[in-house]
Amino acid sequence: MDTSNKIIEHRKNLPRTELPNKVADEGGCGVVGCASSVPIKGKHFLTALDQMKNRGNGKGGGAALLGLDPADWGTTASILKDCYIYQIAYMDTSIIEELEAEFINSSFDVAHRYEVPTIEDYTSIGLEVEPPTVIQYYVTLQSSQLKTFKEELDIEDDRKATDEFIYQNTFRLNTKYYASHGVKQAFVLSHTKNLLVFKLVGYADHVLRYYKLDEISAHVWIGHHRYPTKGTVWHPGGAHPFIGMNEALVHNGDFSNYHAVSEYLAQRNIYPQFLTDTEVAALQFDLYARVYEYPTEYLIEAIAPTTERDFAMLPPMKREVYRQIQLSHLHGSPDGPWFFIIGRSMPEQERIQLLGITDTSMLRPQVFALYETDDLSIGLIGSERQAIDATLRSLSEEDDRFAAKADTYWNARGGSHTDGGAFLFDVDLSGEPTLVTMDKFGNEITKPAVVDNMLYDDLVELLPDNLHKYLARHDTYESLMERLVNHVGNTETLPEVVGLLTAILDSWHLLSNHYNGRNRMLVENFLSRIFRSYPTINKGGFEGVYINNEHRDQLRAPEEEEQYLVMDVAEFPVEGANSAANFIVDAYHLGWKRVLSFDWRGQRFAGSGLGPSSDGFRLDVYGNPGDYLGSGLDGAIVYVHTSAQDQVGQMMKSGKLVIYGDVGQTFLYGAKGGEIYVLGNAAGRPLINAVGKPKLIINGTCLDYLAESFMAGNPLNDGGFAILNGIEFDNQGNVSELDTPYPGGNLFSLASGGAIYIYDPHTKVEDNQLHGVKLVNLMQQDVDLVETYLKENTKLFAFNHYGEKEQIMQYYVKVEPRKLKALTSH
To answer: What DSSP string describes 596-638?
Structure first.
């Protein structure tokens, strides 16, 4: 019998628990994680968690940290290296002595005992339920216990035996003091090396504040808002992260087959105790990683199996291996919308990892990012891009080795045959710490190579003539910003400098080093500085006047010479009655026709709520806008001088939306009209259930499910359509074609109207990507239609990838719905 079966067989001796079958409402969570080659403090996570608080409800929050500094915990490097950290949460401190005697001192040698300090008054930070007392025990298994347990398991490996002893000891401890009691007394938070978990009834930022983790350093951090979508959710034991043995897992989403996964685990003598779908995911991860000892690629495949077209696109040998994995584990794979972030300790290799896995349906938002210099690397994962940038901004304010922007950002397509839809940030602690970023298949990911700074030559081709006077040869971004300081000596130069910096941001894709996060940070930071130098609204007397949240009560109608309102969004609430979105609506109703809004920090609903027929109003957005930007837009124009996030343009009716970057999940859901231009990529599910006449150009690609159930009319008779250009820009601003203009297997699925025009000069879009639709050649009417919008696209983004009008017929293909008769004839 092999080791894995011996471990599973031995677990028959553990107490049985009832399989969960409780269903609760599905809901979204706020998840974020980072892995760094240099240790970072918890306080840099606080801003990100604060900005995602609207994804929580105060009933569960948690954090995990890996790659610890022994000085933070009152111990030594040797103890930290040699000992497991048994971390226990006590709701009832009267049982400490009893529990220690039975589950700690009887089996372990304790090298260090540490009670985690807390703030004095938990209500002072908004908590309603007192968090548990947390005690750490730095332990090694007693030699006699190890010898006996190895004989029981019939295995020789000390590490494997110790891991399993601790796993089973934790199960028994939780059974006695948590799972079997109506009144919960204690439970194990975490129990491995170099990894700690904290959680409570509240928000994740409460965890950091209450346990004073803001000044604690670690190489990997994970945070989670909200609560498990199934199970006991009113108690700290029911909050994320959850553990198996050597991992801490957080989850955004919900399993539709939660009971089936629990039964799958029960067949292997594994029983959940906290009765949540997230817990079974952590237990499943431990089963594959530690018990079955799967390499990371196969572990991910067992959890998120590759299917349909992506499976067929795999190399033959990989298909055969994956087929065997799926035969064994497909019935136990989580089904439904989910996204995992996992912190993993691998002490025998002196490594820690941060892993993000996306479900194959891509129903939950996620974004990855990477920032690299010669001195350090940091990888980040989150529900929202603005949360990633909040962490980087906080780091950059304290440590100039960091920039407030990542070098590169990307979304994952779950189950992709190209990268697997899962990404791993691996920190090697065996020497000088290093970080390597890899996809599911082990392919390394790095930022594009830095090239010589060609700023002047780039900009002189792109900028209007009136802005050339600000440029000088041999400019770097730093020197340009320094010289601009001298030009902004009076208000008359403000609009021109704003125009220059906006033009740089809008042309970022065409500039050398445009993947360099530090350069973009310099431009955005200086632009914010310029905006804050505008005359304040209480003084007036200039074409643009400045206002912020502190002085929001000074908002008034524009005076004769005032053309636009300069709005500092930084301190506005994320949403609600006093939100930035509502303030913009108030300004619009007072008569402002243009608002330049900047330093967005995750605030939602920018440009929403303006009401019907808002023609003539323009909103410019700089910074990090949150979800639902432009939702319900009906006539207004919105320019987003950065990337947008999820649920953008939902139910949009008319107007214009221009995004100088990427856009997130569920873009233009249910849209009815308007013109929309996206410079980069859309994550997944744009234009689902859209009707009427929306007209969209995506210059990059869409991960999958583009215009599913599209119900627009005939595009040649003012109906809706999308143009997909399938291009990208290298770090010198050159346009190149993607490997395929559309990577997914669900293009225009179940559409009943409208069309998609795809730039596909090499005929890479295949019939097996289509469901209920067909590929056809363009007619002259199609060419005339496409050209009209491609010309506007060229004007907005300053490039032309297709050449002349006559080449549109040659390079583009049309996807349109099949007639009902054709669909029913098979």
So the answer is: EEEEEES---TT----S--TT-EEEEEEE--TTTTTT-EEEEE
Residue that the structure tokens 């670690």 belong to = 218
pLDDT confidence band for 51 (50 / 70 / 90): confident
Residue reference for tokens 């990507």: 769
Q: How far apart are CA 388 and CA 273, in angstroms?
A: 33
Whether residue 398 is predicted with pLDDT greater than 70 in this model: the reply is yes
Phi-psi region of 599 (alpha: psi -120 to 50; beta: other; left: phi over 0): left
Residue 732 domain-assigned (yes or no): yes
pLDDT reported for residue 25: 44
Same domain? For 108 and 129 the reply is yes
Same domain, 480 and 431: no
So what's the pLDDT on residue 384? 86
Q: Are residues 342 and 479 in the same domain?
A: no
Q: Which of 527, 561, 591 is the last residue of a domain?
A: 527
Shared-domain flag, residues 237 and 304 = yes
User: Where is the domain boundary, 445, 470, 489?
Assistant: 445
Candidates 623, 223, 665; CA nearest to 412 is: 665
Long-range contacts of 208-211 (CB under 8 A, 24+ apart): 208/42, 208/43, 208/45, 208/46, 208/49, 208/63, 209/46, 209/119, 209/125, 210/118, 210/119, 210/122, 210/125, 210/127, 210/131, 211/116, 211/117, 211/118, 211/131, 211/134
pLDDT recorded at residue 40: 96
Please tell me the predicted confidence (pLDDT) of residue 234. 58
Residue 96 belongs to some domain of the structure? yes
| DSSP single-letter state for residue 132 | P
What phi, psi does 459 have (nearest 5°)?
Answer: -70, -35
Number of domains composing the chain: 3
Same domain for 427 and 509, yes or no, is no
Structural domain boundaries, residue 509: 455-527
500, 655, 760 from 507: Cα distances, Å:
11, 23, 25
Q: Do 399 and 465 belong to one domain?
A: no
- pLDDT 10s digits, 328-376: 999 888 887 888 999 999 999 999 999 999 988 777 778 999 999 999 9
Residue 231 pLDDT: 47
